[in-house]
Amino acid sequence: MMEIDIHEESDGSTPRANENDLSNRRVAPDESGEGLPYAPVNWPNPGDTWRWKVGKRVSGSGHFLDRYLYLPKRLCHDGAGNSTGRRNSFASKLAVERYIQASFPGTDLKEFFASFSWKIPAEMSLLANGAVKLKHVPAVPPIPPCVGIEESDSQSDGLCCKARNKLCISLLEKAENPPLVFMECDICCTEAKFCRDCCCILCSKTINFSYGGYDYIRCEALTGEAVICGHAAHIDCALRCYMAGTVGGSIALDSEYYCRRCDARTDLVPHVMRLLHTCESLDSRDNIEKILNIGICILRSSGKTIAKELLKRIEVAIAKLKYGTSLEDIWKQEDGSHHESTAMEVTTNQEPLNGKPSSDLLSASFDYCSESQKLAEDVDQVLHALKNSQESEYKVVEEKLLAQKNYICNLYQQLEKEKSDLARRTSTDPDALLDIVLSRVKQIKREITNLKEMEQIASGFGKTSRATLKKHFNFEVEE
User: Fold this and answer.
1) Taking the CB of residue 126, how many other CB atoms lie within 10 A of it?
2) pLDDT tens digits, 55-74
């Protein structure tokens, strides 16, 4: 049995597990457990044992990409044993840090994370030749490119895709692993032709599963214990809607994806890394360049060090592609000392396919100052346009809500006058006055119901039904 390196501190404090140590017990996909080495014990109080769980995806370093941490039972309930209703699970280290800082201010975060191993190594299998290889656990079942929707598609055994997409992953009966449990959704998922398994939440069109699903992102934020959001979006749609990449303003994204349905943020750097791995297995230059350009759009202007390094690597790969480097040599990594000069080496040491000499290429050198200024102006224009669109939508909502409020107030005034007339018998037909009063009461109730529907906008446009947006605010949402 493999020994886990856990030792007790000389001062009697909580034992620690070596962080990122591949000698820790390797675990299987979807495995869960509690306590060391992958979750804290006796924190914040003695007897408080945290739980952990992993997903299916494995990184190149041998650790699980999807790793979840769950609060001890005591922290999920109040003194009377009732649930606090607070979030009790975390899908990222940042989420844990925010919870600790908010609930236990003054805690030494380094000390907390040093008490257990955050990274969890995946189990291994020995090949026939004795080599060690990580078990392959695909993020999604391998399926061919999605060619679209066929209304006449016959779907057997009770399986059905609401979008009538014959290549929907929900129809793969022989999938090796059962699908994850998705959160309940009574907004977009109630639409007649919207399938959460294969439709984009932003444009409602089917997503493409080819080449590892490079052009979409699925939100895997935990919305409950072992329950994820599950809504997907085209990367291109998210970029166009300023819900992916690096976006300023109040949304403040840094190479991230913002889910319109659950408001969770997903780091897109791992997604770009998977794009690179996908490209290494392709033999089409056009497809490789198309996928790499998506990676550039995601990482552009990011402030993260790892994102900047990854962006340089992609730019180098595209430069090699354009100047005819063989596909095998495109992915070769140079030493760190030569990394930044690789793109220039490609330009100076190789003849491009179009036959132009290297001197011509060098004479058309990049003007980094002007390019940087142009990019800055583009970003400023985008942010300005986004701010204007948000202010415009807010103004429409404000006008509609105030108008509805004033309308109801006027109805109340009319009701008071009509009730007064009825009490004073100002008409020779009291029954007619009574009918007017009763009709006015029903009208007020209807308008108050409409106002309550309109107030759902407080949760955000993404969480307000399309019917409400259309009926009360005249906002058209693309099907």
Assistant:
1) 9
2) 777 776 778 877 889 899 88
